[in-house]
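User: I'm putting together a small comparison set for a docking exercise, and I want a reference complex before I start. The sequence is below, and the ligand is coenzyme A. Could you produce the 3D structure with the ligand included, as structure tokens?
Assistant: Of course. I'll restate your input first, then give the structure tokens for the complex.
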Amino acid sequence: MSDEAVLTDYKYVFQKDIFKGKVAFVTGGGTGIGFTIAEILMRHGCDTIIASRRLDVLKNAAEKLSKATGQRCLPIQMDVRKPEAITKAVEEALGHFRRIDILINNAAGNFLCPAENLSFNAFKTVMEIDAHGTFNVSKAVFDKYMKNSGGVIINITATLSVRGAALQTHAGTAKAAIEAMTKHLAVEWGPNGVRMMCVAPGPIADTEGMRRLGGNRITDDFLKSIPVQRLGRREDIGNAVLYIASSAGELLTGTTVIADGGAWLTSENNFWRIKNSPLYKQISKM
Ligand code: COA
Ligand code: NAP
């Protein structure tokens, strides 16, 4: 079941009805950052579809999101690696809501692993979920709706490839591919009225991503090393998406908004030191 909690004291910056009558499709919207992105869009009048592999998690999340926001949320089971399932999911979404104005490609898979320990299948799996998955869902939504009606596609990436983060060859490569794809599609689909953007979060508290990437080892030193002196919150990413998808973001396309408090500039990335750390010994045993 989804353990996700809705926001208790959300501070509105934009008018509450900016997405009235609009519909967003959020992959991985049943948990973590995707859940909060869906919530913030819904708080601004949007209906949503949340889609991923675990239907029980999605159903529970959809109920919570609708109750908190008064908007409709349709849960759909779908693996972003399976084009047939995606096509069916997009058809179901359009049958239900008649439109998809915003697509958030948020689904991803990750874990810490040095490249020398990655199996061929481990690398391929992350590439397929993140990079292929983003293309698959974007293409299905473009073909079936945005080609004629326009829209905004926002891909959730990361800052891993900016400095070649240690232990993240698989995810960094996949996210870099998504950022390149975003530029290509911005060029080709712009004339159809489609804007393509990426949001690259840094470390975000209270997420599966953080837990998997060493979130149980957050020290005061680590927090102090981040220029804004704190971890990101899911709400920070939801608000970045809100701005980009709104009419205030109409000139934004083909680029990435890094929403990480400057963490990529300063975070530890010394492989020699990491290799001698307790964390490395722990993941090497996995
Ligand atoms: N370290 C190294 N390799 C790992 C790993 C880890 N922690 N976890 C999985 N793998 C490898 C597996 O061993 C397998 O390779 P093999 O066949 O050579 O043994 C390969 O990755 C695929 O694993 P599998 O469990 O079959 O894939 P899946 O499709 O069921 O799940 C994952 C995909 C592995 C990414 C899974 O962790 C997942 O579903 N993640 C979603 C949630 C998530 O990652 N959230 C954070 C987002 S930032
Ligand atoms: P999360 O809660 O684990 O979210 C990942 C979601 O993707 C889950 O809901 C999962 O649902 C779905 N998913 C995974 N594989 C899928 C597949 N094959 N098909 C369909 N859906 C799939 O993790 P998160 O931390 O919120 O991460 C969300 C996004 O933010 C990811 O793109 C991640 O790379 C990015 N990010 C996170 C951080 C961070 O600090 N958390 C930092 C940088 C970037 P199912 O299991 O039901 O399929």
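The beta strands are 23-27, 47-52, 73-77, 102-105, 151-156, 194-201, 255-259. The domain at 23-284 is CATH 3.40.50.720 (Rossmann fold).
User: Thanks, that's exactly what I needed.
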